[in-house]
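quick one, 328 residues, struct below
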Amino acid sequence: MAAPQELYAAIRDEASSVLIGNEDIVERLTISLLTDGHVLLEGIPGVAKTTIANLFARALGLDFQRIQMTPDLLPADVTGTNVYRENIGEFQLQRGPVFGNVIVADEINRATPKTQSALLEAMQERQVTIEGKTLSLPEPFLVIATQNPIEMDGTFGLPEAQRDRFQFKLTVDLPDRDEEAAILDRFTKDPSLTSTSIDSVIESGDVEEAKATVTEVHIAQPVRSYLLDIIEATRENEYVEHGASPRAGITTLRAAQAHASIDGREYVVPDDIKQLAADALSHRLVLSTNAELSNVTPREIIEEVLDSVAAPDADEVLDTLEAPEVEA
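---
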């Protein structure tokens, strides 16, 4: 199993033995895994944010580490430190929980900015520096941070530089009535059901092969131009102080490749960009005071941008598959 489409289907089906709904969250997590991205999950307590991350890691058979972010947490508690071993009379490196494949930073906005920044190097460079020594992190490496939008006392909002490291910001919503009824039925029949109840369904090496497949997905020039138009429109919007960054364009384009591959295509279409834009761009916008006074949200701005930017015709995209593009 090396095809991204098969990999996602296997993860989704295995996770669904515990999880009800939230298939779009699992899809976005798979996209981030295949494109070296990271995910910020936002939702009220009890909507299964941590459970989703745990299920995802277990279905992949990856090392899962959870860090409970609190105001008294220190950077060394995340990255690790050198510890003196009296029995041997020397210091030894004690690696922190960041040395895992899937890292869940639970309630990340409860940690101080100093501790939050300990994740910056790890997320961007896939390495950490401990007392002057740089250490590589394992592959694959995915950070899933959670935050609660309704309890703001004693929290520290993520700065723009930190938010820009996340490929997606996803909202885990409350289930509808039918889904909640199914949840009640499932956990009434099997009260012991937890995220540990599922098995690994991915073979060793499948993730790296699937990642290689994603990089080969064709991106036509009209699609690239369409994304650039969207990025530019976020910077020119009247409610935005600072629009999407170049990093936002890169990660969104890579995500579109993975989205296309999961959908069984070897080429990106404008709809891949459209479906991902709100999750990939909204958290990166710095809104103006006018936006706050007008109660305009980042997602509303992205929706307005998508409505105002014309997408290329499907025929224009498909024509590039028949005639390879010539580099200038």
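The mean pLDDT is 90.
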